[in-house]
Amino acid sequence: MTTSTTSTTSTSTVSTCQLTFGPTDIYATSGSHVQQFVASDFNGDGLSDLAVGTNAFSTATDVFFANENGTFGRRMTYAVVDANALEWLTVADFNNDDHQDIFVMIYGENNSAGILFGNSSGIFGAMIILPVVISYVNSPCSIASDLNSDGHIDIVFTKSSTPCSMAILLGYGNGTFAAEKIIPIGNDGCVLAIAIADFNNDDHQDIAVTIDIDFYVAILLGYSNGSFKTPMTFSTGIYSFSYSMDVNDFNSDGYLDIIVANQGNYNIGVFLGMGDGSFGTQITTMIEHTNLVSQFAIGDFNGDGKMDVAGVWDVWSSVRLLSSSPTFVTVFVGYGNGSFGQQMIFPTGLASADYVIANDFNGDHRRDLAIGSFFGGNMSVLLNTCTCCALEVSSQAYVSTNDFS
């Protein structure tokens, strides 16, 4: 099943209450490149900490522990041995000890993956390397969820680009996994992003992936044993290159929708879910300020009960670095119907803005932003200071399976 029709929205509405963020706080990592980062409570104090994957001079995972005021203090660094590059981090409790662990995809002498197991203090032991081999992929990514309904966390990750495939590791609940199961994608394009959710309300987790070259979202509806049906596909538009994807309810109908960043077409696309695993035609919102968005985060930033989007773009990071141009994060205010109106930009204080996380870092029930810089090796935190915005009743309408904060 392929759907190719796209409706487009490009409009701005000025609210009497303007969203604001405070001055940026900048934090140095142990490396010269931030590759990816995630937020979670690693030490059980109720605050969202940050785990940052770094490359270049130091290939490591840095863990920054949060203070109650939204700043970050102590940093712990965990080196990744025999690795040229750390590519992706995914957080979950893989051994059922009620402490968050970190799954790490690494490239190096042995392209593989490993897990840092955490304890109650947020301290991690030496990385345990898993018996998997990961070939080079254009857009490495992974995600964790319970795919076979046994109460244990499983992992999905990009496996190879030639031919394109994903792999599933079914967890035993003690930090070990069954032999990987390969999901072939084909030769005409490969995976750019992965999301997991129950799209057809059968209490089984499904997988959504974005594909390059053929430019579509593929939906793999899941069975209870961790296997999946033949994919349904929905076009994201020719040359869209959808490098970022997430899941939430964007029109408040109780069904999960899919949002993609169509980097090649300078828009954000939303597929409204029907609740049975099918989706409507893509609704697109053109990007006004930054021309394109490569990574985004979802949150209700102004507290109106409608999901908004914060996006960053990285394609011209090297140009901005050489010219010392400022970098920004763009917030797209949601209308609650799958489209977005007012677009506002906020300075990040970084040499490049490549990764973004939305979270409430200071406990004031307002959604804040953390930005990671690939070229600068730093990250910045922007606290939401909008006093006229309503406070969030809950953190989000839907919490992604890859958000364990």
UniProtKB/TrEMBL annotation:
Keywords: Signal. SUPFAM superfamilies: Integrin alpha N-terminal domain. It holds the Pfam family FG-GAP_3. The keyword Heme does not apply. The keyword Signal applies. It comes from the Eukaryota. This is VCBS repeat-containing protein. It comes from Adineta steineri.
